[in-house]
Every structure is written in C-alpha cells, then in structure tokens.
Amino acid sequence: MSEILYWQALNQALDAELAADDAVFTLGEDVGLYGGTYRVSEGLMAKYGEWRVRDTPISENSFTGLGVGAAMLGLRPVVEIMTINFALFAMDSLVNMAAKIPFMSGGQFPMPLTIRMPGGVARQLGAQHSQRLESMFMNVPGLRIAVPSTPQDAYWQLRQAIRSDDPVIVLEHELLYFSKGEVDTHASAPPLHQALIRRPGRDLTCISYSRMVPLALEAAQALHAEGVEMEVIDLRSLSPIDWATCVESVLRTHRCLIVEEDCRFAGVGAELAAELQERCFYQLDAPIQRVAGLDLPTPFNAKLEAASIPRQEDILKAARALLNLPQGES
Amino acid sequence: MDRSQMQGLLRDMLRARAFEEAAAQGYAEGKIAGFLHLYPGEEAVAVGVLHAAEPGDYVVSTYREHVHALVRGIPARQIMAELYGKKTGISGGMGGSMHLFDRERRFLGGYAIVGETFPIALGAGYAVAYRRLPEAVICFFGDGAVNQGTFHESLNMAALWKLPILFVCENNHYQIGTEIHRHSAIVDVYKRACAYGIPAEQVDGMEVLAVHAAAQRALERVRSGDGPQFLELTTYRFRGHSMADPGSYRPEAEVKAYEAADPIAAALHEFQLRYPGAADLAAAGNDCLQRFTDHCCQEGHLDETALARLQAEVQAEIEDARRFAEESPEPSMEEARAILARNHRLETVVEAQA
Question: Which of A132, A243, B267, B301 is most buried, judging by how many CB atoms fall within 10 Å of its CB?
Fold first, then answer.
C-alpha cells in the first residue's frame, strides 16, 4: 500500500482497465499527447496507442455522443470532459441519449459508458469555471453519479464505473486532484454507490460528499475538542443514494447536518433533507439543517469566492446550533 | 440489377406506403397517440439505400423511421405494436413511434432530437474502425438537421479519423414548416460535406434505382476504407411534418408537382418499360430480348395479375400487423422498472443492510 495523489489513483485505475479489457478506450480534449489537463491519462497514449487514447477536437456534444454510439456496439468508452462546465454542451448526449437508450430500446442496448469530469469551486477561475452542477444530473433517471473524495475511492470507483453496463458519471473535484492518500489496489472495494461512515459519532450526523468530506472531517475534529462527537458520512454517490446508511445514522444521532458545496436552492441537500425527514421525522430532535454554497454565480474576488461555499466555521456554527450549544469559542 | 432485386424494391416501397397509411388510420381512430411522422413520398430513399446495405451494417435513423425499420427487416407486427405502445413492440412499448430499436438487425434506433444521429453514427463508426471490420454505418438525417452543431462536429471527426460512415441526407425541403431557402444559406446540402473533404453526391431521391446505385457506390467506398461518404437525396413528403401538422404552409401546386413524381408510380413505370406487353414481344420476334422476356414470363413476373397479387400480399401483411398490435397486451410498470434496472442486474449497487 502506498500514498499517492488523487490524479495518480485515477491514472492507475484507467491504466488497469485499459490493460484488462480491449474494449476499453478513453477520449477527450488533450487526453492523449498532452496527458490530460489534470494528468489523469498521463503516459497512456504511448502505452496503448491513439485508437485507445484519443485526442478529440473541442466538440463536447459529439465526442460524448461518440461514446454513446461506441458503447451501443459493445465498447467501454471513458469520456473525459475537461470540466463539468463544458458538459453543458454535452447535455443532449448525456441526458437524451446515454440515459434514455437502454430504456427506450426496451433493454436491448446496455450503455457501458463512463464520463469523467471535475466540478467544484477551485481558486479564482471565475463564474463560468466554478460550477457544481451535480443536482442537474441527479434529476435524470438512467444516469448514475459517483463522487469520490479520496484517492482510494477514485481508484475503486473509476474501475467500477468502467465495468458497469450503465452510464456512470465519475464526478471528480478540481481541488482534490493533488490530495494525497493511501491506495490499496488489491483490497476489495465496497459497492460503487455505498456510503461510508468516515468518522463515527453519537451527537449528530453530518452527510457530505466530494471535497466537503475532508472539510467536514476537520470540523468534526474541532468539535471533538469541544466535547461534541459528529458522525461524518461520505455519500460517495449521488445517484443512487445509499439511504440505508444515512437513515441508520440519523435514527441513532437524532440530528442531521448536510454539508454541500453546490448551491443551496434545489441542490443535493434539498433532496437529502426531504427524503430523510420523510423517513426519520419522528426520531429527529431538530430540523435537518443545510450548510451549502450561496445561490450566487461564483465571484472572482478571492475573499468573496471563499465565502460563497462552506468553510469550516460555517459547519461548526451549524453543528452547535443544531445541538443548542453556545457559539462563543471560534 | 436482376428482376428479383427489382421486385424486392417494388415490394418494399408498396409495404412502406401501406404501413404508413395504416398507421395514419390508426392515429385517426385514436388508437395511436403521440407524435407520428409519416414517410409517404420518400420511400425511394429508404428502400434504395437499405437495399444496398449488408446485414452487418448499422443503421441510425430519425423520428421518421418506421420505413427504415421495416425495410431493414423488422417485422411489421413489431413496428406497429410499438406505435400502439404495446409490450410486443420492438422496443417493448417503452420507445414508441420515434424510438424503434433492434439490436439483432443492427438498427441503432430512431432519435427524436434533431441532429442526434450524427454522434451516434460517429460512435458506431469508431467502434467498427476500432475493430477493423468491413462494416458500414448508415446515418439518416433530414435537411433540417444540417444546421445543428453536431452535424459539423461529427463530420469533422468522421473525416479526421476516416470512419466508415455513409451520411444520408433525406432532403424533403422542409424543417417542419420552414422551407429550405428560409433555413439554410446553402440549399444544396451535399456542398456542406465538401468543407470536411467528404466525397458527396446529390441524387434524385424520387428515383429508386438512382438512389440504390448511388448508395451501392458509396457503400463500396466506405467498406474499402475510403472514409465517410455523403449522399444528398432530394425528396418530398406528401403529408405534413407529423399527424398534428396539416402541412398547409406548402403551396398546393408544389405538393401536386411532387405527387406527379411519386416514386412508386415511377418504379411501376420502370417495370412497364422493362417488361413490354405480349404484343410488343410478338412484334420483336425471337431475339435475345424476346427469349429473356419469355423466361421472365415463365417465372411469373410482373403483369397485372402479378402486381395485383403483390399488392394483396402487402395489404394482408399490414392488416395482420395492425390486428397483432391491437390485440397485444400493454406493458406493466414492473416491466418498465425491470428494463431500467436491467444493466445492473449482475452488479451490487449498494449493500443490503444486515
């Protein structure tokens, strides 16, 4: 077992699947000669050739649709869309084609298509390059969405996505590519859409995903110093959602805090809160709370940008409020 | 082209016309709902192109695809049942008129968002080239689709990587209600393919033999590795865009002019020229033509009796399809859910709680 970066884990996963199955190929802008904007496909074109690691023109809708058509013929395409912001061009291929063809064909065509793309607020990239559009894809039956937060999950979930016969979006995060963690390539993986309890706790449940998970864990550590034990659940998947793990935890702690980087209005947390109150209402000691991104295009200014998405102190404040604790300390 | 091929063309054109008229009837009776885009007038295109295709080729079509599916070999029963939304339909009642799919016959679907057939064909072509197989992908689209971004994106990539795709533009001159001079700066659609270095040809799409010959030439080039080819087939639909559209924006004189060039009438005429009557044959004497014609007559080829029989057979087939569709059961919600879950039936998505 070794410590590697998130992008390296994705690179190893892609390499392993290209080696294991001739039907696997990857395509996207700059994935070949350049090695990928975030280095995820580094070295793979030299190893597998241009038909299996294909540089494309800047034509997101058609090269994503190419993946759909190739998947219909039994290949297992891994389409890289440089960032989720450009996936808006590919919405027709993703929503009208990939998500619909297996169903509209009466189950005749599997869709072993993987879409990799990063989302999230990075550092001062401006409003067009700082979006979190995951809730748009959640509203599309037929698409599955994995959101790995650690190098280990990046490795496991990308491999599982490639092996799945459904279209799976692997939603990465621009600020996680250079995060470090241990990756065991031999360990058996939990199911692709299983949520995991990253830190157990008795006082409240924090549900989070992607880059908000490390933030929530830091907050849990700070709360521990105050005598508060916050359980942290990493969803790992936004569609489907592992409700059983969430419900079990909330029924135990009786309090739930959702931490999401996407915009609060009609975001991921809205779905979580709605479903969990239906299932847990009579066991809750307080209303479910959300700490979310502001309903605002991301400002360029560094301070405003940082204040537009959850920070550690936002999580601490919300947790104390849920427990009726004084806010004094930080 | 030999006689049986000629007869095959004629038979499929008659089947196509009869099928669509039966569908229109079903719609008028309220038995078929939703959008219904009919093909009468354009039969020479689908029949000419698909008779040049091999079983190993792939077909990608639009929302006006009943006839493509029928000529490709999907039984009329299963197409009609899909139009009726029945469980026995080719897409299990989940697709409908605009979404016919048949994995076995490599019919990659009807697509109802204009311009989607390009990237699907691109991916199919990529997969064929990836495996180095001598197969072709036939991509149908209308004149309205060539102003979508996917047209240009996909033609560029198809040419760049020399993918085995035959692009077939069914130019019926209307994008729903807007005539081509009002929607395109360049009305000769084939000229656009030249921008990507794709060999392109404009052919009279009302003439089935010309369509068939052009498709055959183009498919030969595709199969021999020359990269994508492009055909613009000028044609005309006799009806409105869909059953919800009376087509009243089109001048009557224009509709009449194209009806005069009805491809089925033209094909019948072709037979009449090729197979002279008994008096002509008697006048010609015992030459090679006479002998060949005698041979044809002995085989029972196309005289009025044979044609009447052919038409009766076609009517019976379509009537059978209609009855099958009407009598078939509806799919259930459980079946719909099972279809959605089918691709992960072997996968553990989330572990069950102990």
Answer: A132
